[in-house]
Structures are given as C-alpha cells and as structure tokens.
Amino acid sequence: MSPQRRPRPETPPSPKPARRGRDRRARVLPAPPGAPRLSAARPRTVAVVGGGIAGLAAATALAERGVAVTLYEREPQLGGRVAGWPTVLADGSEATMSRGFHAFFRQYYNLRGLLRRTDPGLHRLTALPDYPLHHSSGLYDSFRRVPRTPPLSALGFVALSPSFGPRDLPGIHPLAALPLLDVRVPDVYDRLDGISAHDFLDAVGFPPRARHLAFEVFSRSFFADPRELSAAEMALMFHIYFLGSSEGLLFDVPNAPYPTALWDPLARYLWGHGSDLRTGTAVEAVTPTPDGGHTVADAHDEERYDAVVLALDTGGLRDLVARSERLADGAWRERIARLRTAPPFLVSRLWLDRPVAPQRPGFLGTSGYDGLDNVSVLERWEDEAARWSRRTGGSVVELHAYAVPADRSRAVVQKELLDRLHRIWPETRAASVVDARHEWRADCPLFPVGGHPDRPTVRTPHPGLVLAGDLVRADLPVALMERAATTGFLAANRLLRRWGVRGQTLWTVPDRGRHAPLCALAGWAARRG
Questions:
Q1: Predicted local distance difference test score (pLDDT) of residue 150
Q2: pLDDT for residue 28
C-alpha cells in the first residue's frame, strides 16, 4: 500500500456499537461523557505513528469522531506484527507471507470490535475446532471438550487431561496456587511481579507434564523463556483465558491472508473518514511546539499536529524517543530507554509437494521438541493456501520457535525445526520443500520479573502525547493483541476527553475472580504472605 491522501466525505459512516461475547460477566468501561463528534468550528489534527493494531484502533476512534488523522507507518503495509506482504514462490505462483499464525480469541472484545467496523458479523474469521497441545512424550491435551465456564473449566481440564489428572493433585501446594483464583489488575503485579513464571510454577508444585502443556504455553505466547517472564503476566493470562472468563480457550483465525481479511478493508474505512494513511513513511522525530502541539518529521516533510499517538513496538519507541530530544521529561525518557525486547523468534513457512495426513489439525501447540513451539497447516483455514494446495496437491505448513537464544545459528535452527516436523508428522519426511520463507524477528516486548512499575502508561507527561501498544501498561485484564487494541482506544479516548468528545466504550473479561468463596480463599492466602 503506497502513501495516499483521500478527501474527507461530508457524511461519514457511523461507528459500529461495541459488542461483547457470551460471558455475561464481561466488564463494560463506558466512555467519558461528551459530544458525539468534534465541532466543525474547532477542528483537531492528530498524528498516529505506527500502523499496527494499536495505531489502527486509535486512528479509527479518532477519525470516526471528526478528528483529522494522519497515520505514519514505516513499512509498506498496515498491520504491524499481524501484517502480510506479497511474495513469489519458486513455482511462479504468488503468495502472501506474514510473521505467522495468530489466534483471535473470543475474549478479544475490543480487537473484534475494531474488526467489526468492516465485517459486522466477523464472517472473515473462521473457528478452528480445537486447541490441541502435544508433548514429545506422547501426551495429547485438547480444549475442545473442556467446559468454558469457570470453575467448571478447571475441573473439566483436570478430569479430561492425560497430563494433569486427579493423581497429580496431592503434589499441588494449594496455598501457593490460590492467587490464580482471584487475579485482579493491578493487584496481581503487587503480588507476583517479583518472581518468574518458572519459579511460581515450582512453588505451586505443578507436575512437569502439565506445566509444559497447560501453563508454559501462556508464557511462550509472550515469546519469552518462563525464567525471564513475570509470574504476574502468566497469572493474568491464566485469568483471561481460563479461570476469569467463560469465553473458553477455542479461537478464530482469518480465512484469508491478513491484508485481505483485516487491514485493506480497514484502510478503506479510514479513507472514507478522511484519514491520510502514509505507509512506507518512517517518522524521524517528534518535537513539542510552544502552543501545546507537536511537529512530526519524516525524511521529506515536517507537519504540526494538535496531538500525537505513539503506537510503536519496543525498539521503535526507544529509538524515536532517543532521536526526539525534547520529547516529554527526563524521567519518562529514562523509563522508555529501559524497555526490553523479548528474545528472537522464528517463523518458517514451508510449501510442501505433498499433503500432510488429513487428520492433522489446523493448529498444534507442541512441547518437548527442543525449540519447536507450534505447527499449523494453513490450507485448513486460509483460502489462498487452500487454492495452492488444491492446484499442486501439496500443503502449506508453518513452524514457530519462540525465545531462540541469540547466539544460535539461524541456518541450524531452521534445519532443526524441519527435523522436528518430520518427527511429529512422519509423513512429511517424504515431502520435498517447493519453497520456504524464514522470518526472524526480535521486536516483541519483554515483561521481565519486577518490570511492571517501569512500564509506560497511555498517559505521558505531555497532555498532547499518548502511547498505545501491547508494551503499554493498561491496568486492565488484557494481553497481546487485545492489549494493543485496548490501549489504542484508550489513547484516543484520552485525547477526545480533552476536547469534550465522547470516546469508545470498551469491554474486558471480569476484573477479578468469579466466585466469592474462591476469592475469599485467595485473599486469605495473600494475607498469609
């Protein structure tokens, strides 16, 4: 997508209302009161720096309410870490490459609300029938038959799981496990941010098999080794997906490549609201102006805006703040400079000349395979991959490896992942690789032990400068893509409130445990230390 400017229509479409899922206890966060739109007599301009989920959410909420939005994105395409771009395979066919599989859980109320702007029924998402987890020992867990409503979800998992059953309960230390029953934000950080996810699970006494299959999968979602990840983040994930929400652990995936299913329609929606989308345009610096605004400079131009939303990944935010010497104050700048990035990860996508076995799931979480974290078969849900598969008789398979040590040889790791695939699905040994793409990245935020107080919030020392992204502290029960979408909307709401305009209503999973007796037990455990 190249930089384009579109005129503002006289009567833009109305924003779609927020919706929640099946959980009747989902929490609503009403927008502060105000006018439905900006007055035409007092126009406002906002620069959104970053075209990922957070930036797109902020731009959407602002543009819908009459703000003149200019969105800057360094890459040629929108979507950030959920972007896609064209490539040509060795057989001459065109394909869309990306940074890999993403699960769109039903708890992602605000992200799904953003997608409903262009797809009210979410028809461009399709449900996968299961969330299977497989250990190298042969154990195989599934969430398809596990009840969705807590605490039946936990009881059902214990009853159905071969990796964590009643025989393992005597080894659990109940006092140490009780904080999981009443996770509250931000209290969970006061309790658990000082220890690692690994040490917390040791203290609780979870058996190794259950840890690999049912708990470390959450920490690996942060692209981090459990020894580095804050236990508070893991507990929050457990609350969001398991004990705090009745949406369950099954999820949806886009039924077409990310640009087609998600971002191209949203770009057209933003153009329809008069937004200026400048893809392929990197911001060099942001500078406060004496009148309370900011100038935004790229390689060719400099423009003044009433406010700025910084919706960048960790490294991009650090670098831009370092180049913008007058931005905010010294203490805030030091906090930004201390932000850390998670270890590198690899996404290997393989176009094979023959199909994987028909019983193979569309997505499989793995453990105990020396670095391979999951496998997906794209033709099971994505139309582009399905067309290639039908035409060639092959399969499109994707392998993920998270938290790869920085000193590992990339070529060796790529070969090892293919070897692990052959071990998991032996029929792939006979397949030839028609083509392959290997995406190495190291741009996800790290949430280290004790790092929560240092994380930036949406608010900054300057009222006309706000932050958004999955690195941003929200003090709400949200994570990953949903944290990105939620903080994007929160950033827009903060600016709109300054101008007397009502912002976006938000939803989250319940912000505490669901059952009073269990919450009382958790509180008693907390008082015991």
A1: 82
A2: 95
Angstrom distance (rounded) from CA 469 to CA 485: 7
Model's pTM, two decimal places? 0.93
Task: Give residue 388's identity as a one-letter amino acid code.
Answer: W
Nearest CA-CA partner of 421 in 343, 345, 360: 360
Contact status, residue 482 vs residue 108, Cβ threshold 8 Å: yes
Cβ atoms of 490 and 474 closer than 8 Å: yes
DSSP string, 48-92: EE--SHHHHHHHHHHHHTT-EEEEEESSSSS-GGG-EEEEE-TTS
Over residues 13-38, the pLDDT tens digits come to 444 444 467 888 899 999 989 999 99
pLDDT in tens, 438-453: 999 999 999 999 999 9
Mean pLDDT for all residues in the chain = 90
One DSSP character per residue, 229-287 reads: BBHHHHHHHHIIIIIS-SS-S-EEEESS-HIIIIIHHHHHHHHHTT-EEEET--EEEEE
Contact 204, 172 (CB under 8 A): yes
pLDDT band of residue 3 (cuts 50, 70, 90) is very low
- Name the nearest CA neighbour of 474 among 462, 499, 491: 491
- CB–CB of 213/203 below 8 Å? no
For the chain, first and last CA: distance in Å? 54
Instruction: Tell me how far the alpha carbon of residue 146 is from its chain's centroid.
Output: 24
129: left (phi over 0), alpha (psi -120 to 50) or beta: alpha
Q: Cβ distance 501 to 34 under 8 Å?
A: yes
Token couple for 371: 């670095």
